[in-house]
């Protein structure tokens, strides 16, 4: 199978940089489009999902986060567009693994690429693994790239 749409999922951390390079390399090698996705983790803000009744100050926080995401996207897009012409970026709010799989289905993505923290033991038990959940639930292949960051 030759991927035509590669989805790179990023949280803009050091852990996602290696995954971004792999995604860019795959998209370039196969002449595929590259889609960059960031999911604002609503569960870290104390809510399983944002609904229409969000408090005003919480909405201000979300707006601030989305502004920061927009700036981070600019850097990713600039870097990626030096290599590819077909690059787009999207942001969603929700539970990351759920939103990534939903987005991949909606966009008919052929390959998902994402970094992983490589956590084990207690840290993995408490914090879970978005990458692991995506691997288990995605309908397309998922390439996880372990970070070299500590």
Structure description:
The protein has a single domain, classed as Rossmann fold (3-Layer(aba) Sandwich). The chain is α/β, with parallel strands linked by helices and 150 residues long. It has five helices and five strands; from the N terminus they run βαβαβαβααβ. Helices cover 46% and strands 22% of the residues. It has helices at 14-30, 56-81, 96-106, 121-127, 130-137, and strands spanning 5-9, 33-41, 87-94, 111-116, 142-146.
CATH class: Alpha Beta
Strand content: 15-25%
Largest sheet: 5 strands, parallel
- Give me the CATH architecture, please: 3-Layer(aba) Sandwich
What's the shape? globular
Q: What is the string of helix and strand elements?
A: EHEHEHEHHE
- Poorly predicted parts: 122-127
Task: Report the structural category.
Answer: alpha/beta
Output the strand order for the largest sheet.
Answer: 3-2-1-4-5
Question: Could you tell me the radius of gyration in angstroms?
Answer: 15 Å
Percentage of residues assigned to helices = 40-55%
Say what the CATH topology is: Rossmann fold
CATH H-tier superfamily: HUPs
The overall number of domains is 1
The count of helical stretches stands at 5
Summed up:
With 150 residues, this protein is of the alpha/beta class. It has a single domain (5-146), classed as Rossmann fold (3-Layer(aba) Sandwich), CATH 3.40.50.620.
């Amino acid at each position: 199978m030759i991927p035509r749409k590669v989805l790179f999922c990023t949280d803009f951390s050091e852990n996602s940089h290696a995954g971004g390079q792999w995604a860019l390399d795959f998209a370039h090698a196969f002449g595929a489009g590259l889609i960059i996705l960031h999911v604002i983790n609503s569960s870290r803000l104390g809510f399983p999902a944002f609904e229409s009744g969000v408090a005003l100050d919480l909405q201000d926080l979300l707006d601030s986060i989305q502004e920061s995401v927009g700036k981070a996207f600019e850097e990713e897009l600039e870097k990626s567009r030096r290599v590819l012409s077909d690059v787009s970026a999207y942001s969603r709010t929700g539970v990351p693994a759920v939103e990534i799989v939903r987005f991949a289905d909606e966009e008919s993505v052929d390959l998902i690429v994402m970094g992983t923290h490589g956590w084990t033991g207690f840290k993995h038990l408490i914090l879970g693994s978005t990458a692991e959940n995506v691997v288990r639930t995605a309908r397309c292949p998922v390439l996880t790239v372990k970070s070299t960051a500590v």
